[in-house]
Structure formats: C-alpha cells, structure tokens
Amino acid sequence: MRCLTHPLLRKLLSPSLQCMAGRLSPSKDAVLSSKHLSLRQNCCARPELVTATDMVNYWQKMFETNGIPEARESSQYIVSFVLGAKTFQSLDSKSLHTPLTAVQQEQIQQLSNKRLQRMPVQYVLGEWDFQDLTLKMRPPVFIPRPETEDLVSLVVEEEFQKCENSALCFPVSVPHPVILEIGCGSGAIALSLLCKLPQSRVIAMDKDKAAVDLTRENAHRLQLQERIHIIHQDVSHCSAKQLLLWGPIDVIVSNPPYVFHEDMASLDTEILCYEDLDALDGGDDGMRVIKTILALAPSLLKVSGSVFLEVDPRHPNMVERWLQAHPNLLLTLRAIHKDFCGKPRFLHIQKQSS
After folding, report:
1. Segment 272-288, tens digit of pLDDT
2. What DSSP string runs through 287-332?
3. How far apart are the C-alpha atoms of 186 and 211, rounded to whole Å?
4. Which helix (H) or strand (E) covers residue 251, if one does?
5. What are the φ and ψ backbone dihedral angles of 36, each rounded to 5 degrees?
6. Cα separation of 157 and 165, whole Å?
7. Burial of residue 132 (number of CB atoms within 10 Å: 0-12, 13-18, 19+)
8. Which secondary structure element, helix H or strand E, spans residue 71, and what is its range?
9. pLDDT tens digits, residue range 20-65?
C-alpha cells in the first residue's frame, strides 16, 4: 500500500479510508517533489477532515509538480464539478468548509488522475459551457474555444441587422435563416445559433462520426433536435443537392481546420494526445478546407448570403487574394473582425449578385 503523508493526504487517509490508500494516491506516473517524498511516512497520522479548499490546494501543488498547465484552475474546476458547481468561485462558504465525503474525495482523485495524464479539463469533466449552453464533451471531438463564441455573436448580429434593414420584417424583426455549419464538432456553434435565433434551422455536418454522434446527443439534451439536420459527410465529397433540403442557405458558418501543418507539432500536449488532429490541420497553408468551403458556397447561398469563418491571423490577406483570383465565385470579403486578443480572427464573406 502506498502511504502519502502530505498534510492534506493525512486528512484523506483517516482510519476509515486507509484501506483505500492505494486508490487515493496520485497516479503512478505522477512525479513527487523531494519535499513530498520526504513526507511518505507516518500513515497513522491523526485523522482530520478534508474540505474543498484543502483539495484544491493539494491538487494544485500536485499539478504544478508534474508540469500540468493551469494547475490551480484545473484543481478548482475538478473540485467544483464534484460539488455540483460550475466554478469554484460560485461555491458558498458552507460548501468550502464542509468536510467532503469519502465518495467525493475519491471522485476528485479519479478525475485529477486523468488530468495528471494531460487530459484536457473539458474531457476530464465530460462537459463544458459554451455561450449559455452546457454541452457534453468527450475525446477526440474538438473542444470549442472561448474565442469561437464571438463567431456565433457575429452571425447573430448580422441576422438581426438584416431584419432591421428589411421592410419585410416590419413591424416585428424576427430572423428565420437557414444556416449551414461545416465541421460541427460537439455542436457548440450550431446549437448556440438555434438558441440565439429561435426561428432558425440548421444543417450541421462533420466527417467524423464521433462528432456527428456528439452533436446529435447534445441536440437531444437541449431539445433542439427538431430544428437541426445532422449529416455525416466530408465537405470535400459533398454535393450542393445534399445540403439544399431546406432551400438556399442564408449563412454558412465554420470554424474549419486552419492550423498550418508546420505548426501542428508545436501544439500543446493536451491537444496532440487527445483531440482529433484532422479538426485542426489545415494543410500546408492552413487553407485546405477554407478553399473547399468557399468553392462550394456560391452554389448554396442566396444572393447576399454570408460565409462566416474563424481563421488564423495570417489568413485574412491570403483569403482576400484567393477570392480575387477566383472572381467567378462572386464572393467578396466584406469584413475582418478581431478576437479578444486583438488578432484578426473572423471573416465575413458575402455572395454578390451575378
């Protein structure tokens, strides 16, 4: 039996729990500092009670020792999740200082061991918030990033702006677009748009079956399945006819694979080990899927319909030059929007009349 006597683990290893010490010790692959190693003695320490704050502090140190990024945030998310809260900051004083049960302690241990293996927190918890939705997450389906919430907001703003500019919407402006999302992943973008635009319908497609299944699961959990059509198909092998079941498209939206192939090796360990790399690798220029989407767009969009893309900051000029070299597509780069770091990240491209 492995006996850890770090002050916080002494609390864990009360007489009633010492029989589970093997399960309540860190992962066998974890690295302990010399300070922690010196504490591996005296297993019969005086039993004490463990609080949420104790556990956060302990696992933060364990994560830091093992080089886990965002150590404190990781420990806080795990502990708050076990306690049924979204964030550690939302826990009240009573929750922070009430002793944890043996079951809660073991749950935290099990989840923390996954994080020690560099599994992303979103996969560790099995769920994550995007916009105002809580979505199920599981590897290898691409994890939606915070900046992608801005992509959703841009689409919503554009649709309401269109209604405000149209006399047909008078006296009540209610957008009712048909939207196509290419590369739906967990369904984060598609399902957020369905919630933000209650009269909208969405076609969501992805070439990865795990992504399609997860989008479908999240749609059912949110009771949005009646307004979304989910297709398991690679956009490069897809015909316009398959995507026009509800008529011409108002908006195409995508967070496509846009990482330059040469940059893939420098991605974080969490990404390289757990996420679907095909959802990230955009080829030599990062534009392999972007070009496919733009080439398909004219046959799908209504006149004045829009394409919204999330891209690498190096892409806006590249996309503009590519569109200029393909005037037959009748697509114009209308706007470039920056992310919260001030980098050019989102493109609004519009179809012109012939």
Report:
1. 999 999 999 999 999 99
2. -HHHHHHHHHGGGTEEEEEEEEEE--TTHHHHHHHHHHT-GGG-EE
3. 6
4. strand 249-254
5. -70, -40
6. 12
7. exposed
8. helix 71-82
9. 334 344 555 566 555 455 434 433 333 458 999 999 999 999 999 9
Query: What does the block give as tokens for 257?
Result: 């694979």
For residue 202, which of 185, 222, 221, 224 has the smallest C-alpha distance?
224
Short-list 267, 265, 260, CA closest to 314: 260
Partnered with residue 306 across adjacent β-strands are: 251, 350
| Rg, the chain, Cα only | 24
The pTM score is 0.85
Q: Find the length of the chain.
A: 354
Q: Which amino acid is at 268?
A: D
How far is Cα 316 from Cα 173, in angstroms, rounded to an integer?
32
Where is 274: in which H helix or E strand?
A: helix 269-274
User: Which residue in 77, 46, 42, 44 sits closest to 59, CA to CA?
Assistant: 77
DSSP 180-239: EEES-TTSHHHHHHHHHSTT-EEEEEES-HHHHHHHHHHHHHTT-GGGEEEEE--GGG--
Contact 84, 95 (CB under 8 A): no
The Cα–Cα gap between 202 and 195 comes to 11
Core vs surface per residue 22-60: b (16+ CB within 10 A) or e: eebbbeeebebeeebeebeeeeebeeeebbbbbbbbbbb
User: What is the maximum alpha-carbon separation in the chain?
Assistant: 82
DSSP line for 72-130: HHHHHHHHHHHTT-S-GGGS-HHHHHSPPPHHHHHHHHHHHHHHHTT--HHHHHTEEEE
Q: What is the 3-state secondary structure (H, E, C) of 120-176?
A: CHHHHHCEEEECCEEEECCCCCCCCCCCHHHHHHHHHHHHHHHHHCCHHHCCCCCCC
